[in-house]
Amino acid sequence: MRGCTYSSETRAKISESHKGKSVSEETRAKLSVACGGIQIFIYNANTFELLSVQPSVRAAGRYCNISDITVAKY
Fold first, then answer.
1. Where does residue 63 rank: exposed (0-12), middle (13-18), buried (19+ CB within 10 A)?
2. Which distant-in-sequence residues (6+ apart) come within 8 Å of 64 by Cβ?
3. Domain contains 48
């Protein structure tokens, strides 16, 4: 919660409760869209065939094996 300050003991307990948990890629994609992220549609330049739909700029960069900055420019 914003604006709340927690003691170091409380912060340590919160941190300990989150250790070992992992978030699936599906959950990450849902969070990205819910928080204002945009989906990236990747098409074949010659045939205009849809190749993939990626949940974020970063994921699209990983899919295309290029920098996410390059994806964001285009």
1. middle
2. 42, 71
3. yes
